[in-house]
Design goal:
Chain A: Keywords: Signal. Chain A: It comes from Celeribacter baekdonensis. Chain A: It holds the Pfam family SBP_bac_8. Chain A: This is Putative spermidine/putrescine transport system substrate-binding protein. The complex is a heterodimer of chains A (421) and B (284). Chain A folds into 3 domains: 36 residues, no CATH class; 185 residues, D-Maltodextrin-Binding Protein, domain 2 (3-Layer(aba) Sandwich), CATH 3.40.190.10; 156 residues, Periplasmic binding protein-like II (D-Maltodextrin-Binding Protein, domain 2). Chain A contains 16 helices and 17 strands. The longest helix of chain A has 16 residues. The termini of chain A are far apart. The N terminus of chain A is likely disordered. By secondary structure, chain B is mostly helical. Chain B has one domain: MetI-like fold (Orthogonal Bundle). In chain B, β1 and β2 form a beta hairpin. The longest helix of chain B has 35 residues. The radius of gyration of chain B is 24 Å and the shape is globular. The two termini of chain B are 31 Å apart. The mean pLDDT of chain B is 90. Classes of the chains: A alpha/beta (421), B mainly alpha (284).
C-alpha cells in the first residue's frame, strides 16, 4: 500500500488510504519521508515553471527539481541518460523517438484519478466523435502501449499510457492587420508576392518544415500523403518552392528565438510570419495590433506530456503518481490556460479560473473585464475575443501535429542548404 | 651545473606547456578524432568512417558557404585595415603629446566596455525599415522608399564585422607605429620624399608586423564567427560557423567536428601564407 497517500493535501484519501492507515502506525514518519523525496524533472521551458515547483512543495510536500533544456537536448537526455531524471516533460514527437529506447515506463491509467476527463485528442485521438485524426505525430498514436515493458505503441486506448498530457496548443501565422489592411485566410499568403520582403518563417527545421508544408499545400502545389512524414521527393519539392521565394526576396529574415519573432513583428519589419501564441501577446502588450490569424487549412498543433523514468520505483514512483494526479487536478491547468495554452483536463481548471477567464480562453466569448496573465500583465480588455475562438473551434481544426520524420536527417541537410542558398 | 640549468629551464616552461597541452592540443585532437566518427539521432558511434568528409566535400553547400566565409573575411579585412591604419597613423604621427595619444587611444576602446552582442544588436533598430537611418534619409529627401538592403543583408553583416573588429587592427598597428624612429621620417623628408613616398617606402614597410598581427586577429575572428552572421543577416546567410552551430544544435557532433577541422585547416593555410610575407617575430 502506498505510503505517499499521506501527503498534506491527501489528494487520494479514500478506501485504499484508510486501509493503508491501519497498516502504517505512524503517519507522521511518512510525512517526514515525503519531505525528503526529490523528483527530478527536465523538459522544454514551456511548462517547466518555477511556480509549479513551489506549488508542488506546498501542496504535496516533496521537492520537484526542474531543468529546462532545448528540445534537442531533451531528446538526447531522455534517450541516453535514463538515470539522470525521474520525470521527463517532453513533446509527443520526442516520445516517438525516445520510447523505443525503453527508458520510460508506461503509466497505469487506473491510478490516474481524472483519466476519464482527459480530452479525446489524447485518448481516441478524436476531439469529438466526428473528428478526423490530423497528420503528423498525433498524441493518440504514441500515447499508449500494450503493457508495462512494451516498446511498441498501441493503436488504441489500453490502460497503459506513455505520457500524461500536460500542455498543448494550436499554432498558426501571426499578422499585422494594420499593415496588411485586408483579410488573410490561408497559409498560402505567406508566399504572396504582395508581402515581398515582409514575410518570415522560423529557423527551427523540425517546425519550419511543417509550416512550409502547410503553405505549399494551401497553394495547391503539393499534396502530401502525411505532412509529418514526408518522402524525400516531397521534401525536395517543398524546399524548391521556398528557395525560389527566398531568392526572389520574399523573406525579410528568419527567426530562431521567441524574442526575435516579437521584434520582427513589433518593428514592422515583417507583417506575416510563423509565430507562437505568447509572442503575439508580447507584441500586443506593446500596444501594437497583432492577430494570431485562424486560417482555413487549419492549425499546426503541438502537445507535451510527462513521462516517468524506468528507474522510478517504490515511494518515489508513488510520489510521481501523486504529482500527476495533482497536475490534472486543475491548479496547473488554470495557470497554463490563463497564458493561452490548454490543459489536458479543462473541466478541472475551470475551478481555478474566473468565469470571465474561462469564457475568454476556453469558450471564445468576449471578455467581460480585463484578462490578465498569471504574472499580472493585461492580455485583453473587455469586449475582446480570443483569436480563433473557442477550444473546440481551435483544437477542432488542427491540420497536423509537430512530428519527426523518418527522413529527418535528409530534411535537416536540405534545411541547411535552404539557409545557405 | 649545466644539467641543473637544463632542469630549471624545463620546469619554467612546463606550466605553459601543460596548459597548452590540456586546453589546446587535447581538444583539437579530440575534435579531429570525433570528426571520423558516426552519429545517429541520439548516439555517437566511435567507428572510423570518412562519411562526414565525403558528405562535406560532396555537397555544393559547403563550397558556397566557404566562399561566403572567405568573402566576409576579405571585405572585412580590407575595410578594417583601411580604417585601422588611418586611425593608428593619425594617433601616432599627428598627435604630438603622449598624454593626448593615450587619451584618444582609450577613447577608441570605449565601445568595448559593453558586450559584443549588444554592440551588434544595437544596429538592428538603427538600420531597420522604419529605423533611424531610413527615417533620417527620408526626411532629408534623399530617398522616397526605405532602403531594404540596410538590414538583413551582406551589407549589415559586414558593417557589424567592421564595427566589431576595427580596434583589433588599430591596436597592433598603433603599437608598431609608435616604435618607428622619427628620425627615419625626418631623413626621408630631408632627402626630398613627398608625404606619400614617406608613407609608402618608410612607414608601411616598418608597420608590416603590426598589420600582420591585426590581419590575423580579424581573419580568425571573422572566419570563426557565427552569431554576427545569424543576427545581422536575419538567419538568411550562412558562413562556416553557422554550419557548425546548426550541426551541434541537431546533435550531429561528428559532422560539426569535420567541418571544424576543415575550417581550422583553411584558417591555418591562410595564416601560413601571410606569414611567408612578414616575420612577425620581429614584433614580439
Amino acid at each position: 500500500m502506498s505510503k505517499m497517500r499521506y501527503s498534506r493535501r491527501a489528494v487520494l484519501k479514500g478506501g485504499a488510504a484508510v486501509a493503508a492507515a491501519s497498516a502504517l502506525p505512524a503517519p507522521m514518519v511518512w510525512a517526514q519521508e515525503i519531505k525528503d523525496i526529490t523528483l527530478r524533472q527536465f523538459g522544454t521551458g514551456v511548462s517547466n515553471l518555477n511556480e509549479v515547483g513551489q506549488k508542488v512543495k506546498e501542496d504535496l510536500g516533496f521537492t520537484l527539481e526542474m531543468t529546462a533544456l532545448d528540445s534537442d537536448s531533451v531528446t538526447q537526455r531522455a534517450a541516453t541518460q535514463p538515470d539522470s531524471f525521474d520525470i521527463a516533460d517532453i513533446e509527443y514527437w520526442i516520445c516517438k523517438k525516445v520510447w523505443p529506447t525503453g527508458n520510460l515506463q508506461a503509466m497505469d491509467t487506473s491510478k490516474i484519478k481524472n483519466y476519464d476527463k482527459i480530452v479525446g485528442i489524447f485518448k481516441s485521438g478524436k476531439l469529438t466523435p466526428e473528428s478526423v485524426i490530423a497528420q503528423g505525430t498525433a498524441p493518440s498514436t504514441v500515447g499508449f502501449v500494450e503493457g508495462p515493458g512494451a516498446t511498441a505503441f498501441a493503436t488504441e486506448e489500453t490502460g497503459w499510457m506513455t505520457l500524461i498530457p500536460t500542455i498543448y496548443n494550436a499554432d498558426t501565422l501571426g499578422i499585422r492587420p494594420d499593415l496588411i489592411g485586408r483579410p488573410i485566410d490561408t497559409w498560402a499568403e505567406l508566399l504572396n508576392p504582395e508581402f515581398k520582403g515582409k514575410a518570415s518563417i522560423l529557423d527551427i527545421s523540425s517546425i519550419g518544415i511543417m509550416d512550409m508544408a502547410m503553405v505549399c499545400e494551401a497553394m495547391g502545389e503539393i499534396q502530401y500523403a502525411d505532412k509529418g512524414n514526408m518522402t524525400k521527393d516531397e521534401i525536395d519539392k517543398t524546399f524548391a518552392i521556398f528557395t525560389e521565394a527566398k531568392k526572389a526576396g520574399q523573406f525579410r529574415a528568419f527567426w530562431k528565438t521567441f524574442d526575435e519573432s516579437v521584434n520582427l513583428m513589433a518593428s514592422g519589419e515583417v507583417v506575416i510570419q510563423s509565430m507562437w501564441s505568447p509572442a503575439i501577446t508580447a507584441v500586443k502588450s506593446r500596444g501594437i495590433d497583432c492577430v494570431y490569424q485562424p486560417l482555413k487549412e487549419g492549425y499546426r498543433s503541438w502537445g507535451g506530456g510527462i513521462g516517468l523514468s524506468k528507474s522510478l520505483t517504490g515511494m518515489a514512483l508513488d510520489a510521481a503518481y501523486d504529482y500527476i494526479n495533482w497536475y490534472l487536478d486543475g491548479w496547473v491547468g488554470g495557470f497554463l490556460m490563463r497564458q493561452g495554452y490548454y490543459s489536458a483536463v479543462p473541466e478541472t481548471s475551470k475551478d481555478y479560473m474566473s468565469e470571465n477567464e474561462w469564457g475568454y480562453w476556453f469558450e471564445g466569448k468576449p471578455a467581460t473585464g480585463d484578462i490578465t496573465s498569471p504574472f499580472g500583465d493585461v492580455l485583453a480588455k473587455a469586449g475582446e475575443t480570443r483569436d480563433g475562438g473557442s477550444f473546440y473551434d481551435r483544437m477542432g481544426s488542427v491540420a497536423c501535429w509537430n512530428a519527426v520524420m523518418d527522413e529527418n536527417q535528409y530534411m535537416v541537410r536540405k534545411w541547411n542548404e535552404f539557409i545557405a542558398s | 651545473m649545466l644539467k641543473n640549468r637544463h632542469i630549471q629551464g624545463w620546469l619554467q616552461a612546463s606550466p605553459l606547456t601543460l596548459v597548452l597541452i590540456g586546453f589546446l592540443i587535447l581538444p583539437i585532437i579530440t575534435i579531429v578524432v570525433v570528426s571520423f566518427w558516426q552519429a545517429t539521432e541520439f548516439s555517437i558511434i566511435p567507428a572510423f568512417s570518412l562519411e562526414n568528409y565525403e558528405f562535406l566535400f560532396g555537397s555544393h553547400v559547403t563550397y558556397k558557404v566557404f566562399y561566403a566565409t572567405l568573402k566576409y573575411a576579405a571585405i572585412t579585412w580590407a575595410l578594417t585595415l583601411l580604417i585601422g591604419f588611418t586611425v593608428a597613423y593619425y594617433l601616432a604621427f599627428h598627435i604630438r603629446s603622449q598624454t593626448m595619444q593615450i587619451a584618444l587611444f582609450l577613447l577608441c576602446t570605449i565601445p568595448f566596455w559593453t558586450s559584443n552582442i549588444i554592440r551588434m544588436i544595437s544596429w538592428i533598430p538603427f538600420l531597420g525599415r522604419n529605423g533611424i537611418a531610413n527615417s533620417a534619409l527620408q526626411s532629408w529627401g534623399v530617398i522616397d522608399q526605405p532602403l531594404e538592403w540596410l538590414l538583413y543583408s551582406d551589407f549589415s553583416v559586414i558593417l557589424a564585422f567592421v564595427h566589431l573588429y576595427t580596434l583589433f587592427m588599430v591596436v597592433p598597428i598603433f603599437n608598431t607605429m609608435t616604435r618607428i624612429d622619427h628620425s627615419l621620417i625626418e631623413a626621408a623628408r630631408d632627402n626630398g620624399a613627398s608625404g606619400f613616398q614617406t608613407l609608402r617606402h618608410v612607414i608601411v614597410p616598418l608597420t608590416k608586423p603590426g598589420i600582420m598581427i591585426g590581419t590575423i586577429f580579424v581573419l580568425t575572428l571573422v572566419m570563426g564567427d557565427f552569431i554576427t552572421v545569424r543576427f545581422m543577416s536575419g538567419s538568411q546567410k550562412a558562413n562556416v560557423g553557422r554550419l557548425i552551430s546548426n550541426d551541434i544544435a541537431l546533435l550531429q557532433y561528428p559532422s560539426a567536428a569535420a567541418t571544424a577541422v576543415i575550417l581550422l585547416i583553411t584558417v591555418l593555410i591562410v595564416i601560413g601564407i601571410l606569414l611567408r610575407f612578414v616575420d612577425i617575430r620581429k614584433e614580439l
